Amino acid sequence: QELNQKLEVTFNTSILKRSLQFSVNGNVLQNNITTNSIVVPDTLNGIRQEIHYLNARSAYSAGGNFMLVNLLNDTKNNLTYIASAGYSNNVYFSDNIKGLNKSFNFSQSLGLTSNLNRLLMINYVRYTSTNNSYSIGNENVRKISTWEFNSMLNFRINNSYNFASSLNKKINNGYNFDQQNPFIVSSSISRFVYKKLGAITLGVEDLLNQGNNQQRLVSANRVTDIRNNQVTRYFYLKLRFTLDKFSNGSVNAPVQYIIQ
Questions:
Q1: Contact call for residues 22 and 65 (beta carbons, < 8 A)
Q2: pTM of the model
Q3: pLDDT per residue as tens digits for the range 227-238
């Protein structure tokens, strides 16, 4: 039976109209359920791998988060800084030999939100890094890191039309295959109808067709890099009506009719 003990402390305050939030957390696993990979010969003079489960000690993790909001002290522009770090120590066994998987994660982002009358812009840059090390095997595991640049805008052209667009660029490093650094461009234009209770939207997602999904799966004694390439570019026509304003009663959610 596995016993999980957690401790978390959060601190919030306001300094000169700037909001500060800081939190730390810790986690200790007693009798952690882990795996034991054993290579055994079979009756055909071959070998097979068996995975057994057992309880072990020495598994724990710790982390912290930091967020500072409204760095510019401006009513129209909000600059926010967010950072987080985490460390974990996991236990596994290979051929009955105890091993440790140590992982360190770090991320930070800086974002600027500007609300200028008819124009709303959200821009941020984010950096993430993950480093895993094993005391047994997997000596060639590389640290992965990602830079992400994102820009989104929403422009109210007039009382009838609205334009929205987003740009996203990722730079990946450290995967065990040739990295693809996608540049995702999406845009749409909407026409308000029937006293702004409805809208007709024509748009495109991933105009350059560069979307992919890259991720790293970490288990007790194995690291797997996965990349899925799929068609992510499509055009759509969407008709949306908000029905909860037609009567005095409330409706749980607006009804949307979508063709794409």
A1: yes
A2: 0.78
A3: 777 778 999 998
